[in-house]
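Usage

Read records sequentially. Each one opens with the input sequence:
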Amino acid sequence: MRAPPSHAGLQFLRFGVVGVAGLLVDLAVLFLLAPLLGWYAARVLSFLAAATATWGLNRRFTFADAHAAPLTSIGQEYLRYLGSMLGGAVLNYGAYLLVLHWISGSLGATLGVMAGSCAGLFSNFFAARHLVFRQARAGSMRPLAEWPLADRKRIRGVFTDIDDTLTTDGAITPDALQALADLRAAGLQVIAITGRPVGWSEPFAAAWPIDAIVAENGAVALVPGSSKRYQQDPATRTANFARMQQVLERIEREIPGARRATDSPGRECDIAIDHSEFTPLDESQIAAVVALMHSEGLHATVSSIHINGWFGAHNKLEGARWILRELAGRTLDDEMVCWAYVGDSTNDQLMFQSFENSIGVANVARFVPKLQHLPRYVALGERGAGFTEVARAVLAAR
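and closes with the structure output:
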């Protein structure tokens, strides 16, 4: 079986597709301006037009899962991109001049643009990937103050974690509760997605100013004024529940110090082992719990307080997609740029990776060494204060 292409290989393929689009822009502008400026001067402007087009497409398509290098504005990112293309531009224009020297007229110009694009392809890809856009890594989170106004203006809804994102010392703070109300009053949808059990979440779904709580890492949703909604059918839930209880007992029996979370009686679709709420576990114990869950065929994730395990294809991202379809009949992937996600720990990293407008409250710093995907922005405040800071940034743009 042929191995799948690497991440860098996929990026290069996408970069090539974007390059074809840039080539078409290049040719269109060149032939539009050549009657006025000639083949040589017109090529300078057509190259700039093509570079502008490829910058926009590459940041949205090729490098959508990467972070731009730290900047103060999108304009500076654009200038950095143009600067990074200078080496490729020299090769590009040189190849263009060479072909045009041997073949005159429109045919030579067309072949020259194509030759130039090919000549600069590899150097431009290297420069874009390593100098302008780069994969998330420790220390690459931008301050929330650098969240562009244009991006904040597009926000129509906020997904948020609960524990240590909305809550501080186990309870939601008055400022975070008011921030939820302010977002709703401004017409935004607010949906909490948590690893906490559905039983624990029910009173909050009824009392907080939110559109829904998706509990147990995407398995079940609580919508005010509506009955509980599940991703799995009753027979599947019953069978999975029995199997998970056996795994839970095995964990407590075989891993010293491991204890089920105190909120376990309210769980219907997953199990949870406490590691920081009431029963502290060290890194080796946490790793042992995760490994045992995996050995039993469960998905496993680590939140700021618990280790959760479950059977099924759901997770926080799938839960977000599902609840938006349930509430509004809309497709989240079609409007991802219109949503923000706020979180704090390792079980949020799929959301950090997927949402362009992803924000960590300041206490995410505790988990940075363990995160493969960081949030794009980070608030100054921790926990509820950090969420309030995010809400104010969104509301200030309206």
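Summary fields computed downstream for this record:
- DSSP finds twelve helices and 16 strands in the chain.
- The first strand starts at residue 67 and ends at 68.
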